[in-house]
Amino acid sequence: MNSTFLRRSISALLATLCVLPASAVAPGPAREWRFNVSLDGSPIGYHRFALSERGSALELHSEARFSVKFLFFNAYRYVHDSQESWRGNCLDKIDARTDDNGSRQTVRGAMTAARFVISGSGRDTELAPCVQTFAYWNPQILGATRLLNPQTGEYVPVRVDYVGAESLRVRGTPQASDHYRLTGDASAGENLRIDLWYSANREWLALESTTADGRRLHYELQ
User: Fold this and answer.
1) What is the mean pLDDT of residues 187-197?
2) Number of domains making up the chain
3) Which one is predicted more confidently, 176 or 142?
4) What per-residue confidence (pLDDT) applies to 198?
5) Mean pLDDT of 9-23
């Protein structure tokens, strides 16, 4: 198994670690979501999100744990933790750490007086004052043209298209859903394709992405 292909797709996918802006969820007690993750139908781990309020901000912790086995050996391991703070629909602070099969990355960012400053990949980058990550929980990202990759610190140009209405099995029960497709800007070298499904009230239900070598990575709500 060539883990380079898998790393590239998982990095693109988990680059999309979900952050939930304030308008996307009503104030209230802490909430938690957990997705089982599979590769070509075989379980490889999970991705968990825990949301809580802290004063006027929302705090989200995201953790992903993937392990892909080949024969009796662990061929690939992925560990990602991200802590984000949001005010309104804008990211206020981020601290993300990734171990991509032994390759470690750290991305930190915070609002200054007028810009959002990202520290990662050995350099600082200034972005517009209101930044969003790949916040699948927030249906507002379906109108985004750029999203922040919390694994690399890159501000990625994206496009979102509506695919159509579909029936999707969620927790063992068929459910009506809307299917969207998020793609990277090919002219900018972003070879990214992620399929997303939402319920009628815009709850995120599932995610699917195809790896560079044609394998299917799937998120299923637990």
Assistant:
1) 76
2) 1
3) 176
4) 93
5) 44
Residue whose structure tokens are 């006027």: 56
Tens digit of each residue's pLDDT (9 = 90 or more) over 91-149: 899 999 999 998 998 999 999 888 999 986 667 889 988 898 887 877 878 888 899 88
Query: What per-residue string of b and e applies to 86-101 under the rule 16 or more CB within 10 Å gives b?
Result: bbebebbbbebbbebb
**Per-residue pLDDT band at 152 (split at 50, 70, 90):** confident
Domain containing residue 35: CATH number? 2.50.20
Structural domain for 46, as ranges: 3-221
